[in-house]
Design brief:
The protein has a single domain, classed as 3-Layer(aba) Sandwich (Rossmann fold). The longest helix is centred in the N-terminal third of the chain and has 14 residues. The chain is globular, with a radius of gyration of 17 Å. A 7-stranded mixed β-sheet has the order 3-2-1-4-5-7-6, with helices on both faces. Helix 7 links the parallel strand 4 and strand 5. The protein contains 9 helices and 7 strands. With 231 residues, it is an alpha/beta fold. 36% of the residues lie in helices and 22% in strands. This is Ribosomal RNA small subunit methyltransferase G. Specifically methylates the N7 position of a guanine in 16S rRNA. InterPro entries: rRNA_ssu_MeTfrase_G (IPR003682), SAM-dependent_MTases_sf (IPR029063). It is an enzyme of class 2 (transferase).
Length: 231
């Protein structure tokens, strides 16, 4: 890793930097072969993927219950879990081979994270994960679909944190009515990591209307896929 990137990664991950290195190494060694990333991404994993994901950690209050929808290669969920071990994180992914990868990574790095196979729009998933404080997603779907899928997982007042590109503001304008119908309010664009990344991470934030009817208990009993370690 180039010295400059290493210094920036240490600033972001602090004492947890070694786990970030281990995750990035696993992704570099296995990501292409297992269909998680394209061949061209290997040389830019830190800047474009790992740090790009980790810098959004500043958007989550301490102890938040967070769902990473469509986690895939573990982005942004794994970097978030490394940078913020206080978060109560669930990685939600529908594809079995990616679930297998995520489970292997969580165990290899000793992360206190749940891995769940399913889709956000499925009834059992909504019942299990409803009442979350935040839902995040990266390169999953347009905002209109994300709102329909993700907002029902949130408690009223909870927040969708969607990592987007430069056209985020245009996407908000285009999908404003769909977001409103899904129960979303106050959509806004923010950037994270301007002091760390050459290209800061663009994020769309959408709150779930606090008057929305709850779809389940705010803090349902966890149904983990593996025993959780003591914090």
């Amino acid at each position: 890793m180039a010295g400059d990137v290493e210094d920036r990664a240490k600033r972001v991950f602090g004492d947890h930097y070694p786990k970030a290195v281990a995750f990035t190494k696993l992704l570099a060694e296995q990501g292409v072969e297992r269909g998680l990333i394209g061949p061209r991404e290997v040389d830019r994993l830190w800047e474009r993927h790992v740090l790009n994901s980790a810098v959004v950690a500043e958007l989550f209050p301490a102890g938040s219950r967070v769902v990473d929808v469509g986690s895939g290669a573990g982005l942004p969920g794994i970097p978030l879990a490394i940078a913020r071990p206080d978060l109560d994180l669930t990685l939600l992914e529908p594809m079995a081979r990616r679930v297998a990868w995520l489970t292997e990574v969580v165990e290899a790095l000793g992360l206190d994270v749940d891995v769940v196979r399913g889709r956000a729009e499925e009834g059992p998933v909504r019942e299990r994960l409803s009442g979350s404080d935040a839902v995040t997603a990266r390169a999953v779907a347009p905002l209109e679909r994300l709102a329909r899928w993700c907002l029902p997982l949130l408690r009223p007042g909870g927040r969708l944190v969607a990592l987007k590109g430069e056209s985020a503001a245009e996407e908000i304008e285009r999908d404003a009515e769909a977001v409103r119908r899904a129960g979303g309010v106050r959509p806004a664009v923010t950037v994270c990591g301007a002091d760390v990344l050459e290209v800061p991470t663009t994020v769309v934030l959408v709150e779930r209307d606090e008057t929305s009817r709850r779809t389940g208990p705010r803090r349902p009993v966890r149904a983990a896929t593996r025993p959780r370690k003591d914090r």
